[in-house]
Specification:
- The chain is α/β, with parallel strands linked by helices and about 270 residues long.
- Helix content is about 20%, strand content about 25%.
- The strands form three sheets. Strands 1, 2, 3, 4, 10, 11, 12 and 13 form an eight-stranded mixed sheet that branches. A three-stranded antiparallel sheet has the order 5-9-8. The chain has a two-stranded antiparallel sheet with strand order 6-7.
- The longest helix is centred in the middle third of the chain and has 13 residues, at about 100-110.
Length: about 270
């Protein structure tokens, strides 16, 4: 039952070329950066990644992208990354965009053994009708487009019928996630907003690898506080203090400090 690995490099050593990966994180929050960097050092290429986004230039999944290791991405948001845009528009990268809630449910469904589900999101758009550009050619032409999806009418809770689109579940070869705490059995606790896509990404992986800020012994975690059961986690790696603190801020907004007003001398302003 002890699922711990001595290093991130050992934990990802069997990820082959062409593997599909579900990766947790939202923006730069909850990104399993140590496992991503271990995968970069491992050298696996032609990776098919499923994640809310693909990091930013030079950080997170953007580090794998920069080295040309990613060939396909399923995501809901692809901003903040100029390298991503260049590779996508230049025909180097295949991209399947999907609504954010649909992406989360496709991952959760995959981990729950549900092959597909109907949703109202995307009905009446190219998401359902097909024609979204998945891959461009070097000349800017669309070489691969999304196929049309099955739609069906169901009774609405508000009366009458409403159209829904069929979305298929996602199951990947591996999943990489980040948690605040974990025990040797793989039970995980996430820190606030870092919970984001990590639980559903972990559920979708056939082999799920978790990096944790703190590793504790089985029984130390309050069962009611566990966000993801260890049954979904196959390998766990404890981070060093320096690795756990590698948490960049995506955007920093500041404003000038107001000038002191009369009578405020000696007081905080």
């Amino acid at each position: 039952m002890d699922k711990t690995y001595s290093s991130a490099a050992d934990a990802v050593a069997d990820v082959p070329d062409g593997a599909s990966l579900a990766v947790g994180g939202f923006g730069l929050v909850g990104v399993p950066i140590v496992l991503v960097r271990a995968l970069l050092g491992h050298g696996a290429t032609d990776l098919r990644v499923v994640s809310n986004n693909c990091g930013i230039d030079g950080w997170g999944l953007g580090e794998l992208l920069r080295e040309g290791r990613i060939s396909r991405v399923i995501a809901s948001y692809v901003g903040e990354n100029k390298d991503f845009a260049r590779r996508y528009l230049g025909g180097e990268l295949e991209v399947e965009l999907t609504p954010q809630g649909t992406l989360a449910e496709r991952l959760r469904a995959g981990g729950s053994g549900i092959p597909a589900f109907y949703t109202a999101s995307g009905v009446g758009t190219l998401v359902a009708e097909g024609g979204l550009p998945w891959r461009y050619g070097p000349d800017g032409s669309v070489t691969v487009s999304s196929p049309p999806k099955e739609t069906r009418l169901f009774s609405s809770l508000r009366g009458g019928e409403k159209e829904y689109v069929l979305e298929e579940a996602i199951v990947t070869d591996f999943a990489l996630v980040r948690a605040a705490k974990g025990d040797r059995h793989g039970n995980l606790v996430f820190e606030k907003s870092a919970r984001n896509f990590n639980p559903v990404a972990a559920m979708a992986g056939r082999i799920t690898i978790a990096e944790v800020d703190e590793l504790v012994e089985p029984g130390e975690l309050d069962p009611d506080a566990i966000h993801l059961a260890g049954t979904y986690v196959d390998r766990i790696v404890e981070l060093s203090g320096a690795d756990a603190r590698d948490l960049p801020i995506e955007k920093t907004t500041t404003r000038p400090r107001p000038a002191p007003t009369a009578g405020s001398v000696g007081k905080d302003s």
